[in-house]
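ingest -> validate -> predict -> emit
validate: passed (alphabet ok, no gaps, 125 aa)
predict: started
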Amino acid sequence: MIRPATLARHVSFAAALSVAAFALAGCQTAAPAVEAGTQTTAEGRVVAIDRDPWAYDGNATMQVDTASGPVTVEIPARLNLCPAPGVDAFPEIEVGDQVRASGEAGTDGHITVCNGTGHALQRLD
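emit:
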């Protein structure tokens, strides 16, 4: 049998835990849901850049903080094979810059800017 004082403690703890869970859920930002293989655009401020994958012909990435949440934009290492307008300026883009990236959505939600019709990278600052 549970004593009333113990029951009150358990109910209070459960209520506090529920309030905390709802509060944390409200702080999370979901990335925009985009169907893989479709053309999409992300516009916002660059919050992180990783060009290290270029050392082994991987895709460089930049995190763009959009109004809908964070989006990862990928730029292939072989810029000479990517005819997208503005992609050759990627090495000059810095954290804090405002950008618009249009490309193909991947299954992971990333946007790859390279050679599709309508692909482009533009620095807006």
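The chain has one helix and six strands.
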